[in-house]
Amino acid sequence: METRERWHQLWGTCSVKDHKLPGAFVAEVLLYDKLLIPVPPTLADGVSAEDVESERERWSNHWDPERQKRMLEILGDRADAIPWTAERQAEWQKCMEAQVADARRDGYFATGTVLQRFAPVMARSVVAVSQYHSVAELKKGARIRRVEPHERLPGSSLMAVLGYELLLPDDPEQDDDDFKLLRDAVEVARDGIFREKRRALYDWQQDFLSAEGETDAASIESAVTEMKRLVDEMKTATARQRNWKWAKKFFSFSDAASKCSKLIPGVGVFGLLADAVISLGKFTTEEGVEADKVDRNSIPAASLILELREKLEIEER
Known about the structure:
Strand order of the largest sheet: 3-2-1-4
Radius of gyration: 26 Å
Oligomer: single chain
């Protein structure tokens, strides 16, 4: 039997432009223990004043550093800022030149690759940068590039698509308060119990990855479809369980009332009514037993996703 890879923490590396996306870092801060994010270098990083000014201008023209700075303040200890110095840019250039032509299409992915070494030994690092953030984008990219369903993609693409499909509002570009959404996500991500639960999601995703940690378009689409189905099943089961718990209390009261009515003259009709309610309760209890088979602990990964959707107010409790 194949042994699945285990690690103490999972860190995600980002690119110089990830903060510009709608709902930036919301899914990532929930899916990874920590984010490594490249930032403009400063004098404190041993860079000359001339280079600092040059980089500041370059970032301002392309990547909105003020938005990034504000998001880093919200992320706090959930992210480490890595100065994107000339030395690291040179390393990025070498990485790009070493890549095959197919990988050359996404230079931002190479940015994340350069940052991977900044994760500690206790953590496995993956490049959280993905050119795809939804099943629709995945299909569109496949049509444009004539991508075959079995073409290999980085395993992190699966988590990126899953996160954006299930942990962001349906129309994140319509949400003009990305910062509030990020604050809510960071608050959830700080919970130690949540971080333990997240291991179930890491285990679950392994079913859609190769032994080398890669995936493909068909596997990503299948994973998202399955997770949506599991979450929907869990929502239904949860609703049935709530009704069942209420019903059991009511039927328990009715049973007591029925027994009592038989001891008190003149309340026979009430006793008959209570008996009928109890009979109905037996049927409902049987339904409740079925609902109990799919509870919030039976599928830990789906339970985690549903819990996150509720906490982010994407899903009604």
